[in-house]
Specification:
This protein has one domain. Helices cover 48% and strands 8% of the residues. The protein has three helices and two strands. The protein has a two-stranded antiparallel ribbon. Strand 1 and strand 2 form a beta hairpin. The longest helix has 18 residues.
């Protein structure tokens, strides 16, 4: 079943619920530092969480995806 997943996430065993608190802390830190929050260009929370679970933000602020099909979907969001 896992092999058929076209868009695997990188959340670990905690899943989205476990990461929501971490993402909220990251957003608060970004706001305090007066920098854009990660994935703030996506207005819908569910879509933003989907992208956060699969993408990584580099030090320069660019988002990268290991899976090319995830990058295509991110561009459509």
């Amino acid at each position: 079943l896992q092999q058929r997943n076209e868009h695997p996430h990188w959340l670990g065993t905690a899943g989205h619920i476990g990461k929501e608190q971490i993402w909220a802390q990251e957003d608060a830190a970004a706001t305090a530092a007066n920098v854009p929050t990660p994935f703030s260009d996506i207005p819908e929370q569910r879509a933003r969480n989907w992208a956060r679970a699969r993408g990584k933000v580099n030090l320069d602020g660019f988002v990268t995806f290991e899976n090319k099909s995830d990058a295509v979907i991110y561009q459509e969001l």
